[in-house]
Amino acid sequence: MRSAALERLARQVRRRAEGQPCDVCGAPVPDEHRHVLDLGRRELMCACRACAVLFDRDAAGGDHLRLVPQRRQRLEPVPTADLGVPVGLAFFTIQSDGAVVAHYPSPAGAAEWEVDPHIWQEVVDRHAQLGTMAREVEALLVNTARGQREHWIVPVEDCFRLIAVVRREWSGLSGGSTVWPAIEQFFAALAEDGRSCDG
Asked: Which domain of life is it from (predicted)?
């Protein structure tokens, strides 16, 4: 998923107008609703309950639409140094063709690079949960910045929210005084959501 597509998705996640219709069928959607990813346009689409149920079946959307899962699973620390991560805040997605792309949020959006497939497989061999990630719509989210040890499997929309947080809060060369507290708040909320998913 390329940077321009990530930017479009981040903008869509930020846009929460009341009474927004389902992007699939036009029916009203509640404030709390699911999303599907249009793989062709690389866009998140709001889905009403009926459409979410429809696309919950693996083959329902074919190669075009894919339901974004709701799983938020905290992992034991995953060694990411070998994956070429130059910063402590990054996420990894598996593309439809099996390629793994790493992204890291920045004040200009998301930078990205392709991960060596052999090194990724070595990491998966040591952390079997990564082998269960849904292609395109789930991500390995890592935060090892400033002494943190956060490793999660999350819906890809959470990563786009994080991109939006970084862009909104970043100032100056080092990020300023608000970006890191905002990132910490993001991960605290993620932990809450993860507990409710587990419960």
From this structure: Bacteria
User: Does residue 83 sit in the same domain as residue 28?
Assistant: no
Pick from 52, 67, 82: which residue ends a domain? 67
Q: How far apart are the C-alpha atoms of 153 and 34, rounded to whole Å?
A: 17
Q: DSSP string of 82-134? A: GGT--SSEEEEEE-TTS-EEEEEEETTEEEEEEPPHHHHHHHHHH-GGGGGPP
Tell me, yes or no, whether 166 and 94 share the same domain.
Answer: yes
Chunked into runs of 10 residues, the chain (199 residues) has average pLDDT values of: 58 54 91 89 88 72 80 90 81 93 80 90 94 94 87 93 88 81 92 61
Query: Is 75 in contact with 127 (CB distance < 8 Å)?
Result: yes
Same domain? 123 vs 34: no
145 and 49 belong to one structural domain: no
Q: 130 Cβ partners below 8 Å, 6+ apart?
A: 75, 78, 123, 124, 140, 153
Amino acid present at 60? A
Q: Which helix (H) or strand (E) holds 8?
A: helix 3-14
User: What is the number of structural domains in the chain?
Assistant: 2
The pair of structure tokens assigned to 170 is: 């970043």
Query: Does one domain contain both 127 and 150?
Result: yes
| Residues 185 and 87 occupy one common structural domain | yes
pTM summary value:
0.82
